Amino acid sequence: MKLSLGPLLYFWSQDDIETFYQSLIEAPLDIIYLGETVCSKRRSLGFEQWLELARTLADNKKEIVLSTLSLIEAESELKTLRRYCDNGDFTVEANDMAAVQLLSENKIPFTTGPTINIYNAQTLAIMHKQGLQRWVMPVELSKQTLMGILSDLNDMGIKDKIETEVFSYGHMPLALSARCFTARAHNLPKDQCDLKCIDYPDGLQVKSQEDQSLFTLNGIQTLSGLRYDLYNELEEMQSIGVDVIRVSPRSKQALELVNSYYNKINNREGESAYTIKDNCNGYWYGEQGMLQNSPE
């Protein structure tokens, strides 16, 4: 299996972004996704800067994919989307159906992110005819659902033509809204948000009155309160035919996380210690997302 680093979901400064990716140049990653996927107001890096960063990382033998916005609301965002789709050098991850349409019309191969609602093999078959090469399974789907999809793809004779990627670590992207919840938390209107997201490098935690983690607010995006963690399920995923494992960027100890997942995939667990703490994996088992289950 390959190991990928998903797009940065949070709002960081330019220096923090560049330092983060510089620290991962030698990391054992096969694929790195780059780009702003949540809010067009986050402009620490513009399109050309993301492209420059992509070229730097590509020089270090990484497959680079440019990720697009997950919610398109304005013509200016469509204009930027067109630049991503027409970049000419890198594969594009479509996170909105507008990107799928632009890419398919121009006969450009693409991958889809977890915000594209693909729930069966028939949809994948249609997308494949339009140019889809890899898909990231929506986070709410279970192992059993995935096994059924892969079995159907095999019956259609196209399983080996489509790579399957599973979001395996990080706060799960659950929903997007036209409203900005981080601004609302500070009693600010969305259009005058003061870019408060930058104060929360891993999102703003929302807890119940019982101090239970419910959600993570990330501007217009709602993420899971707990981090999804399929570390103990990696061997199982490999056995059912998953091609790529995705970990999502976090502000601290990212390299240690990547190394732990890499060692687990390659049966070198003894080279790094890893402890699952306050994480969840319920969706993988077809249960409530915030639950933590064991493979047994």
Architecture overview:
The chain is an alpha/beta fold. It is built from nine helices and twelve strands. The protein has a single domain, classed as TIM Barrel (Alpha-Beta Barrel), CATH 3.20.20. Strands 1-2-3-4-5-6-7-11 form an eight-stranded parallel barrel, surrounded by four helices. The longest helix is centred in the middle third of the chain and has 14 residues. The two termini are about 20 Å apart. The mean pLDDT is about 95.
Structure classification: alpha/beta
Q: Any idea what the shape is? A: globular
Q: Identify low-pLDDT runs.
A: none
In angstroms, what separates the terminal alpha carbons?
22 Å
